[in-house]
Amino acid sequence: MAEAGEQSKHDAVSATATAAIEVHEAIQKKLQSQKKQLKTAGSRMKTRKSTRTRQRIIDAAKEIIDEKGTTNFQMSEVAARCNMSKGALYYYFKDRSQIVSIVNEEIGQGIISAVEDISSHESSAVGALQDICESFAIALSGNRAGFGALLGEFMHRGYDSVNGLDNRYGKLAALTESLIERGKKEGAVDPEVNTSLVANSLIGMFMFAAASYLGQEDLMDTSEFSSQLMGIVLEGIGTKQGVQNA
């Protein structure tokens, strides 16, 4: 019986030790899980902070571009505007061209979004094209220098820009082509015209006419500007006599 009692005590101690080990392991597992959650949360907070800082830098660059009327700014100017050191700025962007590229991307994407919205809500293709023309003028009036930089990028890169620039131009061309085709079905556009040629011509005209229009003071408002430009698109500039003599 003594042996049985000793065995019972041994078993009880063993069970207690096992239970203690299991509790310890459970606590360690929970602590590891909490550490992992804290690390993940910290990483998310760091990512959000980094995203906010990058956007603050871009916004500061936009302000400087608008004030100077050119994208030829210094990184030190952006750093000062953001109240950070140049070293901290270079942590987020390696050089000025990278900032300018993102500014251009935001402008280009803003135009594409506007065109998509107009295309889907306007009741007619001609109405949509006129609204798009006006949106170019409005976009330019709100960010002349930045839009000028975007146009300069197109001019500098030439045909490569049509296939590049993150396909911004390609998206814009595709949306405009769809409106031309819609206009043909509605009877507002000559069905014999080359859709791609007309779309690219319209984009070029809208962009450069708006840029020229905004470069002068005391001209027509954006609504009148878009109406006159669409009149040129739909009716041309020649008289009947001029067309007959051509």
Layout: helices, strands, pairs:
Elements: H1 2-68, H2 75-81, H3 86-92, H4 96-121, H5 125-142, H6 144-157, H7 160-163, H8 168-186, H9 195-214, H10 222-235, H11 240-245
- How much β-strand is present in the residues? under 5%
CA gyration radius, whole angstroms: 32 Å
Report the biggest beta sheet as strand number plus sense, adding barrel if it closes.
Answer: none
The CATH architecture of the largest domain is Orthogonal Bundle
On the 0 to 100 scale, the average pLDDT is 74
Query: What is the N-to-C succession of helices and strands?
Result: HHHHHHHHHHH
| CATH homologous superfamily placement of the largest domain | Tetracycline Repressor, domain 2
Helix content: over 70%
- Rounded to the nearest angstrom, the distance between the terminal CA atoms is 127 Å
Number of domains: 2
By DSSP, the count of extended strands is 0
CATH-assigned fold name of the largest domain: Tetracycline Repressor, domain 2
Spans of 5+ residues with little confidence (pLDDT < 50)? 161-166
| CATH class call of the largest domain | Mainly Alpha
Counting DSSP H or I runs of 4 or more residues, the number of helices is: 11
Coarse structural class: mainly alpha
- Overall shape: it is elongated
Protein model, in words:
The longest helix has 67 residues, at 2-68. Mean pLDDT is 74; it is low at 161-166. This protein folds into two domains: 19-92, Homeodomain-like (Arc Repressor Mutant, subunit A); 96-236, Tetracycline Repressor, domain 2 (Orthogonal Bundle). It has helices at 2-68, 75-81, 86-92, 96-121, 125-142, 144-157, 160-163, 168-186, 195-214, 222-235, 240-245. α5 (125-142) packs across α6 and α5 (125-142) crosses α10. The radius of gyration is 32 Å and the shape is elongated. The protein has 246 residues and is mainly alpha-helical. The chain contains eleven helices and no strands.
